[in-house]
């Protein structure tokens, strides 16, 4: 029975990637942006390696994971697929930085200097600089991770000095319950913040990346300048409840 259900979901993953890709293209064109300027990060948390293989067969190469232990198991199980690019997008405990620095190409969820320092120190020799985004708590929600906007200038200066990191930009998860107009303003605020930081701190890193937009709001995020949209449900289907944090 499990076998049958999986066979069905595997074939729909390819269809889903096709329709998400068309949504991205349409929104990018509508915004008058370069078609190559928006990338799809397939968020594979809670999904088995076979689901990722199905996505790879449909041409997807970048995958986002939130839970380290779960991610490491999948990275190991998929080692034969050498072209994969792994992005860490979950909350980071400082005792987990070494494995993140060793196994990922990108980290979207850096929100304090201590974590950035450890990632830089622990990035293995021989690997390219680790691409990072600073996660911003854009709606100042008490329950959310991410730094405050006011902390960014100092963080950007300090992180710009770290040798093994490439500071690519900003990431946010706006409160999805706000009205569409306010959601749009949250994305716009993140984009404006990135522009200002790039101007004020030109040496800190490329600062060319806005990681914003998910299954339900990727069009709005792209209209406001997203360069990575992080999409789980619309690629892999509805998630069951999340596993214990690892
Ligand atoms: C789960 C998750 C996503 C994907 O959310 P969907 O609504 O399933 O597309 C994106 N970003 C982060 C940080 C996530 O944890």
From TrEMBL:
Residues 35-239 form the Alanine racemase N-terminal domain. SUPFAM superfamilies: PLP-binding barrel. The modification N6-(pyridoxal phosphate)lysine is found at residue 45. The keyword Nucleotide-binding does not apply. The keyword Transcription regulation does not apply. It holds the Pfam family Ala_racemase_N. Keywords: Pyridoxal phosphate. Its cofactor is pyridoxal 5'-phosphate. One of its GO terms (molecular function) is pyridoxal phosphate binding. CDD domains: PLPDE_III_Yggs_like. NCBIfam families: YggS family pyridoxal phosphate-dependent enzyme (TIGR00044). Pyridoxal 5'-phosphate (PLP)-binding protein, which is involved in PLP homeostasis. Belongs to the pyridoxal phosphate-binding protein YggS/PROSC family. HAMAP family: PLP_homeostasis. This is Pyridoxal phosphate homeostasis protein. The lineage of its organism: Bacteria, Pseudomonadati, Pseudomonadota, Gammaproteobacteria, Pseudomonadales.
